[in-house]
Amino acid sequence: MKIATYNVNGVNGRLEVLLRWLEQASPHIVCLQELKAPDEKFPAKALEAAGYGAIWHGQKSWNGVAILAKGKEPLLTRKGLPGGSDDVQSRYIEAAIDGMVIGCLYLPNGNPFPGPKFDYKLAWFERLHSYAAELLALEVPVILAGDYNVMPTDLDVYKPERWKNDALFRVEVRDAFRRLVEQGWTDALRKLHPDERIYTFWDYFRNAFARDAGLRIDHFLLSADIAARLSAAGVDREVRGWDHTSDHAPTWIEISDKATKRRKVR
């Protein structure tokens, strides 16, 4: 089974790119972020014609998350992250699909640092910590996928010395991600590619994609039972080079029906 996450940077404005990628990659489950569309403007019919059922949590002009499932309707289990009754930003949606809980998230950017946007990011991260622990306690297969807006280590950012005071690389944010993983989650791409420099985002400015001046900010965190079935993980980098494309590239994992046995390297 192939599961992907993709910050589309405007689902309607880049619908042609999304549909082209869906046809080419044929993922079974897709988590989308940054829809930039209210609920009534979500292109459900176009996605249905492409073979995907969908649930979504939209917001006019900003944010927005969705989950797609090939040939079926995702069962909505949650809209919005717990603990923020006054939080109107559409950043979390969750579904049950094929015996798994799929959480799709779009963590706040947090810039500029310091400031209220950075404080909101850290507060949102703490809410995610609390809820992620609850999900693990359920002892069911869980995947938390999306745009986390954090580069966990120096390996995940070109020229890390330039990013020390950016909200995506501040020590507080990296520490929050580390503490989240330490609950018992597996960072899928880093699990299979521990020493490889892999990026999922390249800015539109300063010819970043051509220079490979990228960031790894789109992540899959897997519960232990899913991590045992992880067989492959990667980035559809070529999509970032298409015309009128997002500044992110689709990131994906493949999981097998049974636990994957890996040969020990001697």
Automatic annotation (TrEMBL):
Q: What class of enzyme is it?
A: hydrolase
User: Which GO terms fall under molecular function for this chain's record?
Assistant: double-stranded DNA 3'-5' DNA exonuclease activity
CDD domains attached here? ExoIII-like_AP-endo
| Sorted UniProt keywords | Hydrolase, Magnesium, Metal-binding
Q: Which cofactor does it need?
A: Mg(2+)
Question: Which stretches make up the Endonuclease/exonuclease/phosphatase domain?
Answer: 4-248
Q: Per its record, how is this protein called by name? A: Exodeoxyribonuclease III
| Family, as annotated | Belongs to the DNA repair enzymes AP/ExoA family.
Output the SUPFAM superfamilies linked to this UniProt entry.
Answer: DNase I-like
What gene, per UniProt, encodes this protein?
Answer: xth
Q: Does the keyword Magnesium apply?
A: yes
According to its UniProt entry, this protein's organism is: Neorhizobium turbinariae
Keyword Transport applies: no
| EC number(s) stated in the UniProt entry for this protein | 3.1.11.2
Q: Which Pfam families match?
A: Exo_endo_phos (PF03372)
